[in-house]
Design a protein that fits this description.
Number of domains: 1
Radius of gyration: 17 Å
Bound molecules: guanosine-5'-diphosphate, magnesium ion
CATH superfamily: Spore Coat Polysaccharide Biosynthesis Protein SpsA, Chain A
Number of strands: 7
Number of helices: 9
Distance between the termini: 31 Å
Shape: globular
């Protein structure tokens, strides 16, 4: 609990057996009320390990839905569990769980609806081993997207995020993509709805198990970011409102 608010951490898992234990062990369970793991039909023993670790709520998909589809289950379950503050943390040990209190307190302060952990502030991304092409892509997409969205975020592509329950509910995330562009559509919609998005700086770690998205998937993701930004631009000018931006 933080300021009498229920704090739920969600772990969207996919083949996370090598990193889940370390991630879970660093979650500050003194302030986190519930941890929910959703498994997107992993091919490894993620589920068995999650049970062994005693994770309080574990859900499995009957078939692989994708990263966005997995997050939809996470957030639905967190809202069903009456969470007030929801934090998504990747179980691939890429982002440090140690920042959970900082992010949760920023949300609890009621100054922000969403808080993202930026790997760009503090210049940690390259030091943490982010491949140069991902770093350059991240910077260019962020610059382009800020321009079209009228925002000033240091990045849109982090997978470490905190939300108020009200903001998640009002985003209607069920209309977002089941694929990797879910994250980007979510932030675009939040800015479209003039939500208050804050940032904290966060180191990042790139190692084999923490990163499976290769060059071609990154290109596909980049093109979807461009599309999302253009859809936002059209919607703002009332030319055409894409489904994911509708209320
Ligand atoms: N549900 C689901 N999640 C996936 C899939 N592929 C990757 N992920 C997850 O998506 C997140 C981002 O992918 P990752 O490979 O870590 O990307 P990177 O760290 O940005 O290079 C991680 O939490 C992965 O576990 C998939 O096919 N399905
Ligand atoms: Mg990763």
């Amino acid at each position: 609990m933080i300021d009498n608010k229920k704090l739920v951490v969600v772990l969207p898992a996919y083949n996370a057996v090598k990193t889940l234990r370390q991630t879970y062990q660093e979650i500050p369970l003194d302030i986190v009320d519930e941890v929910i793991l959703t498994d997107d039909k992993s091919e490894d023993a993620t589920i068995e390990l999650a049970r062994e670790l005693g994770i309080s709520k574990i859900l499995t998909h009957k078939k692989n839905l994708g990263y966005g589809g997995n997050q939809k289950t996470c957030y639905l379950k967190a809202l069903e569990a009456n969470a007030d503050i929801i934090i998504m943390l990747h179980p691939d040990y890429q982002y440090t769980p140690v920042l959970i209190p900082a992010m949760a307190h920023m949300i609890a302060s009621q100054l922000y609806d969403i808080v993202i952990a930026s790997r760009i502030i503090g210049n940690g991304a390259l030091q943490g081993g982010m491949p140069l092409y991902k770093y350059i892509g991240n910077r260019m997409l962020t610059f382009f997207q800020n321009l079209l969205l009228g925002s000033k975020l240091t990045e849109f592509h982090t997978g470490y995020r905190a939300y108020t329950a009200e903001s998640l509910r009002s985003l209607h995330f069920e209309t977002f993509s089941d694929d990797f562009s879910f994250d980007n559509q979510l932030l675009a919609k939040a800015i479209y709805k003039k939500m208050r998005v804050g940032e904290v700086s966060c180191p990042t770690r790139y190692f084999e198990e923490a990163s499976s998205i290769g060059f071609s998937a990154s290109i596909k993701y980049g093109l979807q970011v461009v599309k999302t930004s253009i859809q936002f631009w059209f919607a703002r000018r009332k030319i055409y409102v894409a489904d994911f931006l509708k209320d």
